[in-house]
Amino acid sequence: MKKLEEYVVSIPDFPEEGIIFRDVTSVLQDADGLQLAIDTMEEKIKDLDFDVVAGPESRGFIFGTPIAYNNKKPFVLIRKAGKLPRETVSISYDLEYGSATIEMHKDSIRPGQKVLIVDDLIATGGTTEAMIRLIESLGGQVVGVVVLMELAGLNGRDKISGYRLESAIRYEGK
User: Fold this and answer.
1) Is 174's pLDDT higher than 70?
2) Closest C-alpha to 118, from 75, 55, 69
3) For a tag on the chain, would you pick the N or C end, based on fewer CB atoms within 10 A?
4) Catalytic residue among 22, 42, 59, 79
């Protein structure tokens, strides 16, 4: 059986020279790769007590929903601004080249709920930090973050120190 890392296609010099792009679509396009990704992420959090799974669009939806389903937990969408139909809470944060705003339905997290965040990647940690702040603004308690890939050289883990972070694959470089 292949290792999870073998399903990820690494593309040099994309989107710019000197960057190695880790393509998650190659994992999704292979049934064994997708199953191994979900199983590996679940194994990383098997001892974690959580009430709800939250994930950002779009790849957080892809990995978070089956984890929620397998654990019989609800799944909460975290979306780009303007995409949710009911009353929302939002947070803006800085990106490497600009800024972004994410939001959730105001009633999606109840005070005291233990929340697991699921995403495909943590790089600099800005989006993950914003998700944590957004969930906590609703009274939720983030008990863990699990990602498929961690680009450790970009120090995203430092931005969310104090929170449990698990990664199925850890790349030391950028």
Assistant:
1) no
2) 55
3) N
4) 59
